[in-house]
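To close the chapter, one final illustration. This time we ask the reader to focus less on the individual chains and more on the assembly as a whole: which components sit near each other, and how the overall shape emerges from the parts.
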Amino acid sequence: MADSERVVSAVRKFLSRHRKDETVELDTSLFADGIGLDSLETAELSVLLEDELGRDPFSEGADVESVADIVEFYDEGKSPA
Amino acid sequence: MIELLAAAAGERPDDTAVVSPFGRRSYGELARAADAVATDLLRRGVRRIGVLEPDPALVLAVLAASSRIGVEACVYPLAATPEAVDDLCARFGHELLLTSRTGHAAPSADPAEVVATEPGELPDAPPSSRPLLVMTTGTSGYPRGVRHEWDRVLRVAQRIKPAPHQRWLLAYGLNQFGGLQVLIHVLASHAQLVAAESFQPRDALAAMRRWGVTHASGTPTFWRFVLKEARADGGPLPPLEQVTLGGEAVPGPLLDQLRRTFPDANLSQIYGATEFGQNVTVRDGRPGLPASMLARGGDVELKVVDGELWVRSRASMLGYHDDTSVDPDSWRATGDLVEVVGDRVEFRGRRTDVINVGGVKVHPLPVEERASAVPGVALARAYGRTSALTGSVVALELVLEQGYDAEAVEDAIRDACADLPPAARPRGFAFLDALQTTGNKLSRGQPA
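The assembled structure is written out below.
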């Protein structure tokens, strides 16, 4: 699975657990009018990403606003092919 | 201690006092063994000794002997490494280590050889002081030495009447306060002590079946695993008349499971600790303590200060080793966080276990209780998992029963925790084969 798919799939898994709308696009905002995460839900997403993908953008101080930002974080973390 | 042993030996010298993988010993044999040890200790002129010995009959003889002549004995945990034993010996100033193990820095003697020596003349008068040193189990750090007086520790024995048919399981190490309590109960009731191959619940269950154990006292963690083992192997249940829990907060769902599994047994919870002695027994089968205990006087008094339970007890310690003595009859904070709900004092966890989630203080026990009650969960432990966003979040480590799906169980736990405040809901789930325990209590703090 490509990284962006793994990220989106992890986010979908998180959303389904919280019985939120699972339609996630890359430009979906995590906060406010987007998914609308509060601080505890964001902390939980950070734990889930760390468990599923080995590291997580929130703990490493990345500026994360949207699903695309998460995908970008894992893309940047990869060594060049 | 020596008086309890002498009384039992006087009335029934040929009855078995201890049955263990090391064999049987009668009350008569133990009384003679205690005299032999007392004679030897007097001859050596030692005042403070350590005992590191797997045979509970020998430990019992050493403890009775030390109380006979006022020598301060301290039982070491069997799991201690040689380095830890040397360290404890030096820290507690032990002049002699009674052990069959060799290679220790301190002078040592083999207890099996000492009990086989000829008892000599012992002083008639009881010693003016009968000290005892008990180590804390150290679920939260290095063990401390807690100073007790036998006369205070034995107050509990005054209410016990002989019941020689009883067979008591030893489910605690004799270095633990819980193990000491079992010894005292066995001696005071002229009963039989049954020791298994190890303190592991599987071995304990086998010993309970083999020897027809009627009375067993263990931690909630111990009982959870005994139930799990019994269900898994489908074998017969031991003929328990008494099931006692202590040493950790007792969750309601576990009490229900025990009541269903052993419908004829009395179910009781003891509330005590190495520092303030065994204090309260609750027999109504409900979690927590009756709130009416808060107003009661007598040998044990309880009060709640800022959400923490305080105790003033006639069985409490005199102080820590190498520390200024405390007033043994003063109020002491227990470290147990409680909340009075209706007619009940409910336990919320240890003060040191509180999880700080974004400034909200969360107690792990209510989370563990909800998770433990979910079908398929064999064991649950809540802890604070570090989070860059909120400091910590509540996370769960779980052991599943066979045949259950982790995702389905996780969903069920989320539903079961939905009534908790958002900060207290579990945010991380890890499914493991086993959880780490110390002295049959769940280890606290961050997972290793």
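Residues 3-77 of chain A form a domain with the Non-ribosomal Peptide Synthetase Peptidyl Carrier Protein; Chain A fold (CATH 1.10.1200.10). The interface with chain B takes residues 17, 38-40, 42-44, 46-48, 51, 58-61 of chain A (CB under 8 Å). With these observations in hand, you are ready for the problems at the end of the chapter.
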